[in-house]
Amino acid sequence: MSVFVNQLGYLKQGEKRAVLPFECKQFWLVNESGEVCHEGETNFFGYDKASGDQVTVADFSEFNLPGRYRVKAAREWSEEGQETVAVEYSPWFVIGEQAYDKLEHDLLKAYYFLRCGTDLTEEYAGPYVHKACHMGKAQLWEDHATELEATGGWHDAGDYGRYITAGACALAHLLYAYRMYPESFEKGVNIPESGNGVPDVLNECRYELEWFLKMQRADGGVYHKLTTAHHAPFVMPEEDVAQLYVLPVSSMATADFSAVCALAAGIYCNFDEEFSGRLGKAAKKAYQWLKANPEFLGFRNPEGCGTGEYGEWSDFSNRFWAAAELYSLTGEKEYHEDLEGLFSEGKFPIMALGYAEVGGFGVLAYLLSKQGKSLNLMSRFFGEIVKAAAQRVRISEESGYGVSMLEWEYGWGSNMGVMQHGMIFAIADYFGLGAKVKAAAKTIGMPQRWRRPGEPEIPYEQGPREERGWSMRDHAAAQLDYLLGCNALGVSYVTGNGENAYHYPHLRPAHADGIEESMPGMVSGGPNRHRQDQKAREVIPEGTPAMKCFADEYESYSLNEITIYWNSPAVFTLAYLLSRKREA
Ligand code: G3I
Ligand code: 9MR
Ligand code: ZN
Fold first, then answer.
1. CA 565 – ligand 2 centroid, Å
2. Who wins on pLDDT, 378 or 583?
3. CA 518 / ligand 2 centre spacing (Å)
4. Cα(60)–Cα(63) distance, rounded to whole angstroms?
5. Candidate from 154, 156, 159 with most ligand 2 atoms within 8 A of CB, to mutate
6. What is the pTM assigned to this prediction?
7. How many domains are contained in the chain?
8. Which structural domain range is residue 39 located in?
9. Strand partners, 29
């Protein structure tokens, strides 16, 4: 089936496209009774660099009759003087307002399946039950005689580690999704707290935040991570009983902790003052530690520790984010001075929304804050949003798939990039910057390769272009389309969602539980052209086009792992798309 679509489907309004990796002229939409409901001429896009294919686009945006359909296309070629026609079909998909109902539920519910330190019971987990895991005390890596009770939180990913900067990133995506699009979080996801009067997204985030609070040292510094010395074998979490360690404090972890606790304090105050108070206090204390320790305190795995490192080169963006959140929470001048100072030094990418570079969260904190704001700073932040979104528009216009990814951006966890770009379009739209973005996209300059923070931008090499005139919403939707199957492999990168969804995430419980189907709602890391593990090197031939560097192999962590911060930007982007639906 090489007619690629979003396998869940499309909302009635907005762009709807199928992409075909071959030339063809006509296409049809066929319903379940086999009737043709729509026919159209395709547009030949040409060479799509990331997939290495000549691609054709079948646009059926104008068709919005709710129902279940598939796209039929006739592929023609000549064989020994004869015209041959082969008919190809896309997977089945839905047009209608309920297209993403299951996805919405599953993406958030995924966090429940990653809960550590609690029994997952049949009532909430269905067949994916397990006993409370990682219940032992953790020893300080630096002093084994000191023990810490730090159960709880989410497993980071396919491994059982718990890492502060990664957790802060996931929390930031989820909490901002709620803050900006609360109307998209009205439905519950059947977790133990459901029905307590608090939206489930906040119930779920609290599970992680309570663990965060345990990771702060008495002096305000925050431990970088809590893991065993090495990754566990592929066993159920409760069978991973190796000694747990708390690894040293880092300034990135302390700053991200401060930021996300301040952000959360401002949200939970509407539901639970006591909890909000604890968060606010912890955030300030972490900030005091940062002020007392102005030097960068990075993190490298000490000898004997082999779990995820999450090292960074600098902490400028982390400190900026913390200052911005604390300003937003308290309105105190000191924080404003700090954030302004860090911003004007210009030592970090402003609109990053990742687990290492976090400047974009600081920008959101400031712009959404109810405190007094500097007009100058606001307009510079808006300018940064416009620039980031304009680059992303330009890049997606160079993709036959409408995905905003340059060839070299298909690295480890590329699907996170795709969904973060969805977030950038959402943010531009939120602040009403769509028209400015479109104007800026015509002339915008771009980085040509990955840069360390602070390295200059390199002029952009022109590729094929198609000015599509899409709205921010259309661009964001196209990123989701890619994730759900409108990509060169026709794979949906979310378990349990889509006719051709991947099945075998690098996720220990999903493999060890003996159940054939993985728990639903898990976003795979996706294509990675660097082939960074043995399985990937085995199954991906060298020279494979970037978008095709993926295989549904549970052993390949560099292609097919899941993480809490790869699900979260998908939750955000979807919350945006659904909020617009409800508005309409
Ligand atoms: O060097 C590349 C560059 O060539 C590329 O163009 C660019 C854009 O994709 O990325 C650059 O750096 C990559 C970096 O991630 C940033 O994306 C590295 O090559 C790549 O090795 C690095 O991968 C990280 C991986 O840990 C290894 O450190 C992933 O982002 C990160 O998500 C992953 O995190 C692990 C945790 O350690 C443990 N838990 C699971 C989790 C997910 O696999
Ligand atoms: O499962 C681990 C995964 O979560 C990490 O992203 C990855 C890189 O740190 O490591 C995986 O664990 C592997 C370990 O590094 C080497 N031995 C095999 C482990 C499982 O495949
Ligand atoms: Zn656990």
1. 17
2. 378
3. 19
4. 6
5. 159
6. 0.96
7. 1
8. 1-98
9. 38, 71
